[in-house]
Design goal:
Blueprint lengths: L1 E10 L2 E6 L20 E6 L10 E5 L2 H29 L5 H25 L7 E4 L5
Parallel strand pairs: 3-5
Antiparallel strand pairs: 1-2, 1-4, 2-3, 4-5
Length: 137
């Protein structure tokens, strides 16, 4: 994913970027309800590049980061829900549907907490990279 923006703050290799309109915004169906436009994001400058406040930059987030985020925040908690639900059903066959559902929800909540911790501390915690905008972007 690539987004264009304006550098609003530069501190060494760290840069704060305000996201603006790009070519893809015209064809997007949610242009009035965009959750990115106008937001400021922290990014890390690519090695070998520098930027000053007010310059246009390109933010880049690898597609693998989106896939990893979907896996951790969707698949893992959902899988744990079914594991908790079926696990309680297998361990205590006489228990009702409500107890199994609560166990599944508790396992899902634990999965979300675990996924959030991994996202903050692991490889997914890396910021997007930024570089100056050139004519080919």
């Amino acid at each position: 994913m690539k987004e264009r923006g304006i550098a609003t703050k530069v501190d060494g290799r760290s840069v704060t970027v305000r996201i603006g309109l790009s070519e893809g915004c015209a064809s997007c169906g949610s242009n009035h309800d965009c959750s990115v436009q106008g937001k400021e994001l922290e990014a890390e400058m690519e090695r070998g590049f520098s930027v000053a406040v007010g310059e246009e930059v390109v933010l880049e987030v690898p597609d693998s980061a989106s896939a990893a985020g979907a896996l951790w925040l969707l698949a893992v908690p959902l899988g744990l829900f079914f594991l908790g639900y079926l696990g309680v059903g297998a361990a205590w066959p006489g228990r009702g549907e409500g107890v199994r559902a609560l166990a599944g929800l508790a396992a899902m909540a634990a999965g979300l907490l675990f996924a959030a911790t991994v996202a903050r501390r692991g490889r997914m915690s890396r910021r997007p990279t930024a570089r100056p905008l050139v004519s080919g972007d």
